[in-house]
């Protein structure tokens, strides 16, 4: 880890190696970075925000509790949208970002649906989700006409802000104001109205740069990556008759269970679902793997399940894997068919050429038929034309 960090810092030109007296290797900080680091650590330099001083008291001021609730609600809307909850709606910009990040997939005329990467994303803690999401946003920033340096600077400035304080939007560029509206939708800042002259950074924004997951908000997915039965994470009972009992009121957790099972009944504090061949194969068709389903059930196991070994009935885990294998029995490869060869020699010459190029998919020497890949078709075709001209 140390060597990797040293390599990254050297790659960013933040320092460079230099031999010290006695032949030892040392590192010298980049002078520009050194001066700015000293300013940041000692509290010097020009203040980046007036902390609302020129705006006066806010009649609609928000306390820390309300900011935390707002951030949680906004972030949960994104998670609910990913699992297909009908009550969750996001902007077209955000939906496109989820598709670009590979968390959801969109087909013509159909609403976006969650992918394997998206399901894995939901198993992360909130801090990790936020980092991944922000990095994906930054990758698309320049294509949106935004200044990447300006956006990064603002994100790091937010990490130095004070929770519960309001800050002025005066002096922000149009690009930064657009970015602020996106942060508002993500739950990283609170702004009462789009045209409001002040905003409040939430805990999500302040902890983003620090990577401190311990101080992040608690959301229904905050502990999905925890060990089985830890804390209040265990709520699922799986029976050998393929029934699932989920003891939870969380709409998000229920929606996650519904991704790979059929909902049968819903009561206060508990839902009953059935794992079926159709429901599992539908989940697999959407990109969710059998291993991810089993991992989810295992990490969400109710304390009652933890008393037995193994946690999950082997008949259930084995059957889920078998249902996945059913879909893997056939593999489809696009290609171009070559047939109607005049002689066996012609067939063998072209087949050997395709094989040497690594583009031969299938061949039947008895019937003089072969299939090559789409990318290899043009090369094989050119070779065959040259071959015929030499005959």
TrEMBL record:
GO terms for cellular component: transcription factor TFIIH core complex; transcription factor TFIIH holo complex. Belongs to the TFB2 family. This is General transcription factor IIH subunit 4. Keywords: DNA damage, DNA repair, Nucleus, Transcription, Transcription regulation. Component of the general transcription and DNA repair factor IIH (TFIIH) core complex which is involved in general and transcription-coupled nucleotide excision repair (NER) of damaged DNA. Component of the general transcription and DNA repair factor IIH (TFIIH) core complex, which is involved in general and transcription-coupled nucleotide excision repair (NER) of damaged DNA and, when complexed to CAK, in RNA transcription by RNA polymerase II. In NER, TFIIH acts by opening DNA around the lesion to allow the excision of the damaged oligonucleotide and its replacement by a new DNA fragment. In transcription, TFIIH has an essential role in transcription initiation. It comes from the Eukaryota. InterPro entries: Tfb2_C (IPR040662), TFIIH_p52/Tfb2 (IPR004598). GO terms for molecular function: ATPase activator activity; double-stranded DNA binding. GO terms for biological process: nucleotide-excision repair; transcription by RNA polymerase II. Its main location: nucleus. PANTHER family: GENERAL TRANSCRIPTION FACTOR IIH SUBUNIT 4, TFIIH, POLYPEPTIDE 4. It comes from Takifugu bimaculatus.
């Amino acid at each position: 880890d140390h060597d990797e960090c040293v390599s990254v810092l050297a790659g960013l030109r933040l320092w460079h190696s230099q031999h010290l007296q006695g032949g030892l290797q040392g590192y010298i900080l980049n002078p520009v970075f050194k001066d700015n680091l000293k300013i940041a650590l000692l509290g010097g330099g020009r203040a980046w925000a007036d902390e609302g001083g020129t705006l006066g008291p806010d009649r609609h001021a928000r306390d820390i509790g309300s900011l935390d609730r707002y951030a949680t609600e906004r972030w949960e809307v994104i998670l609910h949208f990913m699992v297909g909850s009908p009550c969750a709606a996001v902007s077209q910009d955000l939906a496109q970002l989820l598709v670009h990040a590979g968390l959801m997939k969109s087909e013509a005329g159909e609403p976006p649906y969650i992918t394997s990467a998206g399901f894995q994303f939901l198993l992360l803690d909130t801090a990790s989700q936020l980092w991944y999401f922000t990095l994906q946003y930054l990758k698309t920033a320049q294509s949106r006409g935004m200044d990447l340096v300006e956006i990064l600077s603002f994100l790091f400035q937010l990490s130095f802000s004070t929770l519960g304080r309001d800050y002025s939007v005066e002096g922000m560029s149009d690009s930064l104001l657009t970015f602020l509206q996106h942060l508002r939708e993500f739950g990283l800042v609170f702004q009462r109205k789009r045209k409001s002259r002040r905003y409040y950074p939430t805990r999500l924004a302040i902890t983003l740069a620090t990577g401190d997951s311990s101080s992040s908000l608690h959301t229904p997915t905050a502990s999905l990556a925890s060990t089985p039965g830890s804390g209040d994470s265990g709520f699922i009972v799986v029976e050998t008759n393929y029934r699932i009992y989920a003891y939870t009121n969380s709409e998000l957790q229920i929606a996650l269970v519904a991704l790979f099972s059929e909902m049968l009944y819903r009561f206060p504090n508990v839902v009953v679902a059935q794992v079926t061949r159709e429901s599992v194969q539908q989940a697999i068709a959407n990109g969710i793997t059998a291993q991810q389903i089993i991992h989810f059930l295992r990490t969400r196991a109710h304390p009652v399940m933890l008393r037995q070994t193994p946690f999950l009935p082997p008949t259930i885990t084995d059957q889920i894997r078998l249902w996945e294998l059913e879909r893997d029995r056939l593999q489809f490869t696009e290609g171009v068919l070559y047939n109607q060869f005049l002689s066996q020699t012609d067939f063998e010459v072209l087949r050997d050429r395709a094989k040497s190029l690594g583009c031969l998919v299938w061949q039947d020497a008895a019937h003089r038929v072969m299939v090559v890949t789409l990318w290899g078709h043009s090369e094989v075709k050119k070779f065959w034309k040259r071959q015929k001209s030499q005959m």
